[in-house]
Each structure stands twice: as C-alpha cells, then as structure tokens.
Amino acid sequence: MERLQKVIAHAGIASRRKAEQLIISGKVKVNGKIVKELGVKVSPNDKIEVEDIPIQKEEPVYYLFYKPREVISAVADDKNRKVVIDFFPHEERRIFPIGRLDYHTSGLLLLTNDGEFANLLMHPKYEIEKEYIAKINGIPSRDELKKLETGVILEDGKTAPAKAKIISIDKKKGTSIVKLIIHEGKNRQVRRMFEALGYKVKKLKRERYAFLDLGNLKPGEYRELKPHEVKRLRQLAVTQHS
C-alpha cells in the first residue's frame, strides 16, 4: 500500500506537491469515488483516475539523454523555457528526468517513466558516481584540489569526499579545465564547490553517470538504455541499499 499522491507522482503525471493539490481540489478518484484526503493509501489493484483519466500501467522505458545547455530538467516550465521532454515529441509515455542538471549545465541525464527505478537511483544512501568537466576562471592550487577532494563547507553542509584533477591550463586566459567526480546530488553542487574556493564556473558538463557515458551522442540526442544497463543500475542501487 502506498500513499495516493506518491502513486500519482510515480506515474509521472505531476510532482508529489502538485499531486497533493489535485487531490485536495477533488480531481482524483479511487475506484470511482472522489478522494480529497491526503493520507489515503492505495494498492496496485485500485483504479485511480486523475481528472477522469485512468492512470495507465505503462511499459517502462529508460533513456540516456545528452542535455544541451539552457534547457530545464523538468517536464514543464512556467516561464515557457525549453524542457528536456521537448526533445521526445514522439514519446507518448509520461517520462521524466531522474534527478536534474541545472539550466546552464549540459551532459548526461537519464529519463524514465519508472518511478520506482528513479527513486532507487536518487536515494540519498545510493552513492552513484557522477563525473563532471568544468571550465573555470583561475587555476586551482594543489591544496585547493585537496579541499575539493576532502570536502568543502557549503550552506547545506560539508560535501562528501570527491576526486579532482586538472585536465588542462590556459595561462594566457587564466582559465583551467578540471575533472570532478562526486557521489552526491546537492543542488548546483559542482558550481557551489568551486565558488566556495573563489572560482567561477564558465562551462559545466556531466560526462558520466555510474558506468554510463555519452558515447557518440550530440547535444539534444538520446538513446534507449539496453536491458543489461538497466539491470546493472538496479543491481548497483540494491547493493548499496543492502
């Protein structure tokens, strides 16, 4: 048994907060009856309708997407900016991004309609490795790289141990390219880690997520994950949880 708003969110119809609003406003039915209480729990056998449309048990789908810069990691945007779903015009299933990359960050993003799978990968206990390439103003010292690796104090706590390496330096322009591997998913974490040391990130790209990379994809392109990749991600998460 799961809370009704959680089931609606898992189906990719709306965020959990929006799902709560839909329930309160009387737009959700369970087995033909309008439900307005938020504490209601439902089973897989219950028939749930949102605005008179039944929640479908869709075939699960899993995408690896190369998110371009200046695209929102969401299914909709109230400012009418481009969102990741716009790149999947022929996909009729209700897909949504697993986690997010901020507006100005490009790179690897996973999308699915499988809420359970998404929750598994986003669970705070699951330390999934994410590799970023950052172009920054300035050239960090060895001590500063060490600080990135041991943890930087941010307003929402100290970051977990990371791996940092300078890839290249442009002394003339006073910039450098740094590879940073983190396990957490704090909001705008990589940018804030560099900012904490006084460096502004000019460009940021996520190159890798666990064992997955972008391969030959170009910005805006995607591919479906292979069954063995989905299985491996699931196994990684389950291993971390146990």
TrEMBL record:
Among SUPFAM superfamilies, the record links this protein to: Alpha-L RNA-binding motif, Pseudouridine synthase
Q: What class of enzyme is it?
A: isomerase
Sorted alphabetically, which keywords does the UniProt record give?
Isomerase, RNA-binding
The GO molecular function terms of this record are: RNA binding; rRNA pseudouridine synthase activity
Q: Note the Gene3D superfamilies from the entry.
A: Alpha-L RNA-binding motif (3.30.70.1560), Pseudouridine synthase I, catalytic domain, N-terminal subdomain (3.30.70.580), RNA-binding S4 domain (3.10.290.10)
What is one GO biological process annotated to this record?
enzyme-directed rRNA pseudouridine synthesis
List the CDD domains. Answer: PseudoU_synth_RsuA_like, S4
Q: Please identify the protein, giving its name as recorded.
A: Pseudouridine synthase
